[in-house]
Amino acid sequence: MSLARTLRPVADLDFHDVQSILLPVAVTPLEAWNLMTGAPRPLMRLAFRLRDAMSAPFGVKRIGGYGRANPKQVSAGERLDFLLVEHAEPDVLILTERDRHLEVMICMAIEGRRLTITASVVTHNAFGRLYMLPVAPAHRRIVRHDLRLLQRILRGSVANSAVP
């Protein structure tokens, strides 16, 4: 049985994306999150600033972006960057954000050395649907890029720790 979770059954979602990658070393979902979001790229910082500027007039709270903290552990009810930690175990991390426009869930699950990131979104109104038009394709690319980046970072850490 897969550890991945979604907000609702897949048929009832407005956006669903699942991507996975085999990692060179075992990490926890939180360690993977920290490595992928710890040093936000300039383009991502710009994207978050644009998102905040364009969404604020519609009553959407500013999120600022990633990388403000790299905690060693988190518990349900805490915040990880702008997302609420709903579930945190050594093999599963579930993060959510909910507002009047949409609900978002990111589930990061580790099975062996395979990391799977599952994103699910339910929109509640026209603004939520409009918001997801550019976000959906961008999200897929960003996650794909971040998974490859994580793989390179971990390969580098393995190579650096090898004994000659």
Binned strand content = 25-35%
Strand order of the largest sheet: 1-6-5-4-3-2
Percent range for helical residues?
A: 25-40%
Radius of gyration over C-alpha positions, nearest whole angstrom: 16 Å
| Beginning-to-end CA distance, first to last residue | 40 Å
Secondary structure class reads: alpha+beta
Total beta-strand segments: 6
**Spans of at least 5 consecutive residues with low confidence:** none
* H/E topology pattern: EHHEEEEEH
Q: Number of helical runs? A: 3
Shape: globular
Largest sheet: 6 strands, antiparallel
Provide mean pLDDT, rounded: 87
Describe the structure.
- With 164 residues, this protein is of the alpha+beta class.
- Helices cover 36% and strands 26% of the residues.
- It contains 3 helices and 6 strands.
- The chain has a 6-stranded antiparallel beta sheet with strand order 1-6-5-4-3-2, with helices on one face.
- Helix 1 packs across helix 3.
- The longest helix has 36 residues, at 126-161.
- The radius of gyration is 16 Å and the shape is globular.
- The termini are far apart.
List the helices and strands and how they pair.
Blueprint: E1 15-22, H1 29-37, H2 42-55, E2 79-80, E3 83-88, E4 92-98, E5 102-111, E6 114-123, H3 126-161
Q: What would a concise description of this structure say?
A:
The chain has 164 residues and is an alpha+beta fold.
Main attributes of the structure:
6 strands, 164 residues, alpha+beta, 6-stranded antiparallel beta sheet
